[in-house]
């Protein structure tokens, strides 16, 4: 049974659901299907009139979170940059109410994101970071036919609108077993959201207050976060951090083969140690000695664990990718509220499927990678915190200067610690296996706000 079908079984209706599900874009609460197909498109508004007309044309096709499990499994999501909102003619007083980081844009926030070295905006693909991207459209579908139908709708409305330009388009999906660009099963551990109408999966923990993800509702502190004004624009919206990565799969394969023997592991065991899960999605906490694909494919079991019996990281290293991104009950050297740093993830892989045997230099030049889409009411703050503190530092887990082995920016001399008995081991020579090719901070309005924007005078 696929995750998407399992989610439909978990949907429940009760009087505690107080979210305006009919007004929230489906992508905020809707899991990416498996398998999945889709497109990311970046659009420029040549004129304010063209931008507003396109929003009016697209709005009827953007599905809400209300009863999304009953609709056809293809949907369109829309999010706008600060420059896009300006181009549409949003009043200055309203523009001023947006967070500073959003107004500055992701490229200008490189220092706060630790986007240095190969991730520096000077290396980004155009049009990312140029201020030319005004609207980002994403299409998600569970099969190729539904994807093509949704794509045809978007293309029709775009073609019929004067005063807009398609800057770029990336198709994604159709990866075997929905694996990502380095061969791992992805999208297993998203936070449960209070009021979403979906019961948490085992291991997700208590549902997090909706206000951490959707504007206009109480967050973990008991009060709503500040939101853009007027209420017609901000209510039921959220923020998005979109980041496009290129994966150096050849370098990754070479690293696994060169270092596995020295640690007494085979390449697949080392790959699991770097992430915290086997490629199948089975967590090392529940399958410490060998892969268990059946476990990895079972959403009722593959996330149902804690680190209580692994405080030293003997099973899952403290610096492993997934332990950094969701420490759970790990004892942290620097105290922080994990719940306010959770994000909704909608990752999509593009390019040809990952090949574990391809380790030549040419493999690094293959157009293959990931779009990370982070959704949160405080997406800018959370993404910058995660990038600078949890991904590219390790003080919070007592690992000093070590960096995330999968998405961290590596420097010569940095290490990765493998806790072992009687003596820990340190791996050297890590490379930046996923290099940033571009990104944008975006605002994902509610359906009513899209209508409000389309009718601006």
What does this molecule look like?
Keywords: Iron, Metal-binding, Oxidoreductase, Peroxidase. Its cofactor is heme b. It holds the Pfam family DyP_N. There is one protein chain. The protein is of the alpha+beta class and 457 residues long. It is 25% helix and 16% strand. It is built from 15 helices and 11 strands. The strands form 3 sheets. Strands 5, 6, 7, 8 and 11 form a 5-stranded antiparallel beta sheet that branches. A hairpin with a 6-residue loop joins strand 9 and strand 10. The protein is globular and about 70 Å long. It starts with a helix and ends with a helix.
**So how many helices?**
15
Order of helices and strands: HHEHEHHHHEHEHEHHHHEEEHEEEH
Radius of gyration: 21 Å
The profile of the biggest β sheet is: 5 strands, antiparallel
Query: How many extended strands?
Result: 11
Biased composition (Basic and acidic residues): 289-301
Pfam families: DyP_N
Region (Disordered): 283-310
InterPro entries: Dimeric_a/b-barrel (IPR011008), DyP_N (IPR049509), Dyp_peroxidase (IPR006314)
Features:
globular; 11 strands; 15 helices; alpha+beta; 457 residues; 25% helix
Characterize this entry briefly.
The chain is of the alpha+beta class. The chain is built from 15 helices and 11 strands. The protein has helices at 3-10, 26-29, 48-58, 82-88, 92-96, 100-104, 110-113, 144-159, 231-234, 249-260, 267-275, 293-296, 321-325, 379-391, 447-454, and strands at 37-45, 74-80, 135-141, 164-173, 238-247, 344-345, 348-350, 369-376, 415-418, 425-428, 434-444.
